[in-house]
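User: Second chain of the day. Same drill as before.
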Amino acid sequence: MVDDDESVRMALSSSLRSASWNVIAYASANHLLDDTRRSKLKLVVADIQMPGMDGFALLESIKLWKRPIPVIFITAYATEAMLARAKTNGAAGFLSKPVDDARLLALVSELLTK
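Assistant: Same format as last time:
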């Protein structure tokens, strides 16, 4: 879970944990990329608008990993253009804030049980 907004990060992490998923929360894309545990990640839920590296740059970095993993984008500024860019760049999902917990949990479950 990557989001610069602590309240969003904590709420979504809590929701994912309540569904028995292991969660590591990061305040920025750089925190995730600098974490030695990142090779154990199976999926990333990331905000698009963040200071420093945004969600699209994070997705590009993850696509270069030896074992790329799915990235679900969340954003408070959803537009058709942003959705199209997310799909074109290979995002596994796109949800607008406030995030519908049920939709997020269903998408995470679908992606991780394939």
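The first helix runs from residue 6 to 18.

User: Great, on to the next one.
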